[in-house]
Amino acid sequence: MNATVEAWISHAREDLDVARHAVSAGWYKTACFHAQQCAEKWMKALLILHGQSPSRSHDLDFLADLLEPYVQGIDSIREEALVLTEYAVDARYPNRMDIDQDEATQAVHYAERLRTWAASQIDSSR
Fold it and tell me: Within the chain, where are the H helices?
């Protein structure tokens, strides 16, 4: 795995750690935003691994479409991608979303599932 892919994965791991901490601190919008960022960075790492330039898009379903020719089981993370995409922008601003602890916890869980899937794709490409 090249250094660029590793850098994206490192940032994705940090986003997941921040999301987990944010849930425990009661910062639910922040948790959702960082959960989305974690998933986005894992997906972009996969694109780079397969020789593609990552799109500047925050739309995880769109990124899934770009990944489809290169990976297995993309449909297994489509629900997570659709839900997490909502948090890319709106969760960063006041009065745009009301997010409770359950929703933030679910967003972190979705990011974890997407991370597990993406890591398995990287492992299978070695």
Answer: 3-25, 28-49, 60-67, 78-85, 101-124
User: Torsion over CA of 35, 37, 40 and 41, rounded to 10 degrees?
Assistant: -110
Tens digit of pLDDT for each residue in 30-70? 999 999 999 999 999 999 999 999 888 999 999 999 999 99
- pLDDT at 92 > cutoff 90: no
N residues, the chain: 126
Quote the tokens at residue 30.
């922040």
Provide the residue ranges of all domains of the chain, joining segments of one domain with +.
Answer: 3-124
| % helix, strand, coil for the chain, step of 5 | 75, 0, 25
Q: Which CATH superfamily is 3-124 part of?
A: Nucleotidyltransferases  domain 2 (1.20.120.330)
For the chain, strand residue ranges (E) read: none
Q: Is the pLDDT of residue 124 over 80?
A: no
Q: Which two tokens mark 35? A: 């959960």
**pTM to 2 decimal places:** 0.94
How many Å is the Cα radius of gyration of the chain? 14
